[in-house]
Amino acid sequence: MFVSVFNAEPWNDEWTKETAQIRIENMMKTNTFIGKALYAGNDLKGLIWGQKKQHYNGMHFHIEEFCVKTPEQNKGFGSALLKALEGALSEIGVSNIYLITSKGDKTEGYYCKRGFVSSENMVLMTKHSFCETKKV
Fold first, then answer.
1. What is the pLDDT of residue 135?
2. Listing from the earlier edge strand, what are the strands of the sheet with 94-99?
3. Would 88 be classed as within a structural domain?
4. N or C: which end of the chain has fewer CB within 10 A?
């Protein structure tokens, strides 16, 4: 499910089963991992997970992955997952949830409709291709 959702619009990533498995295993092996999955019978409908992180002003949570099967989107499964996660985080005293997502109505707009706002004091910065391959 992870590969098919994130390799489609609007993300258009290039996950393989192997790279997705490594990412999922890396995250789940930490002691700060918290995640929720939504099933209907044996059918996985969606998942949400990330890491809790201590900050100077309390415990924060970084949503690292959140997806719902493409044919199941717009049926309330994502909202149910987000609500379940928020409930679990509230129980352990998490004071802030943050995430990084693509710009656009389907991504950024989804979170805005659920009470998230763009940060006024933080910016996402990236640096690509900083590691050159050297031939010996």
1. 57
2. 33-40, 43-55, 58-68, 94-99
3. yes
4. C
